Amino acid sequence: MIVKEVTRILEELAPLAHAEDFDNVGLLVGDQNQEVSGILITLDTLENVVEEAIAQKCNLIVSFHPIIFNGLKKITGATYVERTVIKAIQHHIAIYSMHTALDNAMEGVNAKICEVLDIMDPKILIPQKSTIKKLTTYVPLDAAESLKNALFEAGAGTIGNYSHCSFTSKGIGSYKADQHANPTKGKIGEIHYEEEMQVNITFSAAIEKKVMNALFKNHPYEEVAYEILTLENTNQNIGMGMIGSLQNPMKEVDFLKIVKERMHASCIRHSELRGKPIEKVAVLGGSGAFAIKAAKAAGADLFITADVKYHQFYEAEGSMVIADIGHFETEQFTKNLLVDYLTKKIPNFAIRLSESITNPIKYL
Question: What domain of life does the native source organism fall in (predicted)?
């Protein structure tokens, strides 16, 4: 198995197209065609993680956070980033990062937090925009069904829990082929009228290339007439954060104690307690203060995240409790998620969970 094949499997879970624009995801170091001897899963890629990969005979590191974020102008070993990249290159170790692509995944970072905390029936807190597209094309009646099936096979036509979704309508199309054309139907130099089917089908922006390949490969016309629109509809399965409910309402302090224990948090910084039971809980791994308003609007009693600034705690305004449990703490189980996922997808392959401690924050 080569690097490209492993990353293709990872992108089934978290397509890179769903990563935030500011992010740097994908293969950051290495050759995509290199044969993989073993995979090391980590939250961060640091020098000690590369050393661990060498010791474990793993030449592919799958990292949640990207070691290269703002770009490198020099690679001289002057910084921890440069030293890590140099060591990886010297030992032919590829580094692949998922970061916000996994943050936005339905079964990603936030789903894992919900699993650990027994938060039931989680839904996306902030759906990602511009992730749904619509294809409209025109095809002869006798080829419409086979074309639709090819598009379905490519992943188009899925809406929530439903697949093979499309809308069709009949009409008359016209065209005149010039002397350079090779028309499937009609004659050169004559206007041809064909009874056609208009096919409308939606698809995820992440699979646009795959859908277009299926369209061109299976459409009978030499020149394919089509339109692609980006829809304003929200995608219920892609986005930041999640919100769900506890099986039974709990006292604030009691649930915060559970959070501290299960998330291995050294401390919890939180806004003023309301003296009301906790039932609806919102979570967002990493720096999630930007989602405070969304959590309030969704009716959360408690919002669990990290990196909340002093004045941002005021934004709770008594309507919910904001709990900052630490950046590393909210994302630490991501490694386990990826190990479990890859182990199921690639059984009998060397997949290792990194034991390196990469949390840069220490507590006295």
Answer: Bacteria
